[in-house]
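Quick entry between incubations.
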Amino acid sequence: TETQAAKDEL
Amino acid sequence: MNLFRLAGDMTHLFSIIVLLLKIHATKSCSGISLKTQELYVIVFLTRYLDLFTRFVSLYNTVMKIVFIGTSFAIVWYMRYHKVVKQTYNKDEDTFKHYFLLLPCFVLALLLHNEFTTMDVLWTFSLYLEAVAILPQLVLLQQSRNIDNLTGNYVFFLGAYRGLYVLNWIYRYFLQDHRARWIPWISGLVQTALYADFFYYYILSWKKHEKLKLPA
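Done. Structure below.
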């Protein structure tokens, strides 16, 4: 999902 | 991870080191907004709830712990260190930071990807981070004398946001082609808030003068 992908950032 | 992202994280880390260095070495937190620092504690705590539930990489885990730990350390220094706390510009740090929390939370309840506690709080942390610098910028505007370390701290914090925008552009076009609207929009708002500061920072640097923001 978009969320999962974005959460690898700090 | 691309170079912009790494450079962004490093400038973020560097800004925190500059701030801690200023506080520790000069035993002074003058010009630093406690309200902004308290908001960062909330930002990191609500964003990194997945610290123990989702492993991304050792790099991510270490950085998350460092960001949480250093933000607590800064607030501790400003509130409780017997010398440092006396240098805090309490009367000038007037921004009503609590008024930022509720709108950000309501916005996160309305605009998010998944309606789960963790995702709403993660979204809330992005909205809050976007505006968390406001008390600091207001304090700088009221300060007659902005020392170099304080100016550099805000400069590196702004540079981190700018580099993250470049990282998103790079990621979108050259890596995974995924749209991430919530981090993008809040990140752009956050970067825009620094524009005015950057203008005067660079101006003062060119003229070799002390940084001063117009009231």
